[in-house]
Design a protein that fits this description.
With 242 residues, the protein is an alpha/beta fold. It has eight helices and seven strands, in the order E-H-E-H-E-H-E-H-E-H-H-E-H-H-E. The protein has a single domain, classed as 3-Layer(aba) Sandwich (Rossmann fold), CATH 3.40.50.720. The protein has a seven-stranded parallel beta sheet, with helices on both faces. The radius of gyration is 17 Å and the shape is globular. Strand 1, helix 1 and strand 2 form a beta-alpha-beta unit. Helix 1 crosses helix 8 and helix 3 packs parallel to helix 4. The chain starts with a strand and ends in a 6-residue tail after the last strand. The structure holds NADP nicotinamide-adenine-dinucleotide phosphate (NAP). The site of NADP nicotinamide-adenine-dinucleotide phosphate (NAP) has 30 residues, from helix 1 and strand 2.
């Protein structure tokens, strides 16, 4: 069985990625933090489209949970390789630096940056043994440009961009590619409190993007066709920043 693991697959961009990877024939492991109902909803949609998958609950900000839950899935499925890893789970907790609490800093760094390390560290061994893999990290415009009010989030996403470039150079010989996709403003729960009418004036295509538009870029990078693309950051932002 060839599996794909999508962290934060219960909603938004992660759900759209799960559906695309299932359509490519992958058994999709849908990770989520707490929203089991939405995770089941993703799985049902996969099954309705003729695909298959399973749920894998763990908090990417808690290293022991990752080790116990993801680690035991890997240990109990020795013949099932995770060929594709999408590090998508993320949160934002915005505040100007002058008011940012230690909790806001820690929470965003742990989820968006440290989660990348602990999940990838576990999945990478199998990819190296298999001599094939696709790792795609969902970052953000914020990690490229920096956005005011998001010092924590910009730092975390920029950190993942650096890690993407470094890791791609370590594992290229094993036919493992490592890339990042940087969305701009995408309509999901994460952006529901933003003023699209006002913000879209800055976006050349004059609208927020959809989760499916991000998932399409991810699916391409996850495909065999993208075998010579590694260490890259692909922006999906309607021309907002280049
Ligand atoms: P969303 O709609 O808020 O969904 C977040 C997903 O991540 C949910 O599935 C959630 O699980 C999961 N999650 C959050 N914290 C987690 C944790 N500690 N452990 C495991 N899963 C966790 O977010 P989204 O807009 O789809 O964003 C997806 C990714 O794209 C994030 O990395 C985000 O930073 C990035 N991004 C989004 C935008 C945008 O405009 N939306 C722009 C740039 C980058 P539960 O359902 O269990 O809570």
């Amino acid at each position: 069985m060839k599996a794909a693991l999508v962290t934060g697959g219960s909603r938004g961009i992660g759900r759209a990625i799960c559906l695309k990877l299932a359509a490519m024939g992958y058994y999709v492991l849908i990770n989520y933090k707490s929203n089991q109902q939405e995770a089941e909803n993703t799985l049902n949609q996969i099954k309705q489209n003729g695909g298959d998958g399973g749920l894998l609950q763990f908090d990417v900000a808690i290293r022991d949970e990752i080790k116990n839950l993801l680690g035991s899935w890997i240990a109990t499925h020795p013949d099932d390789t995770i060929e594709v890893l999408i590090n998508n789970a993320g949160i934002r907790d915005d505040s100007l630096m002058a008011f940012m609490s230690e909790e806001q800093w820690d929470g965003v760094i742990r989820t968006n940056l440290e989660g990348f390390y602990f999940v990838t560290r576990l999945v990478l061994d199998g990819m190296l043994l298999n001599r094939y893999g696709r790792i795609i990290n969902i970052v953000s415009l914020s990690g490229i440009k920096g956005l005011p009010g998001q010092v924590n989030y910009s730092a975390a996403k920029a950190g993942v961009i650096g890690a993407t470039k470094a890791l791609s150079q370590e594992v290229g010989r094993s036919q493992i590619t490592v890339n990042a996709v940087a969305p701009g403003f995408i309509r999901t729960d994460m952006t529901e409190n933003l003023d699209e009418k006002e913000l879209k004036k800055q976006i050349p295509v004059n609208r927020f993007g959809t989760a499916e538009e991000v998932a399409s870029a991810v699916a391409f990078l996850a495909s065999k066709e993208a075998s010579y693309i590694t260490g890259q950051v692909i922006s999906v932002n309607g021309g907002l920043y280049s």
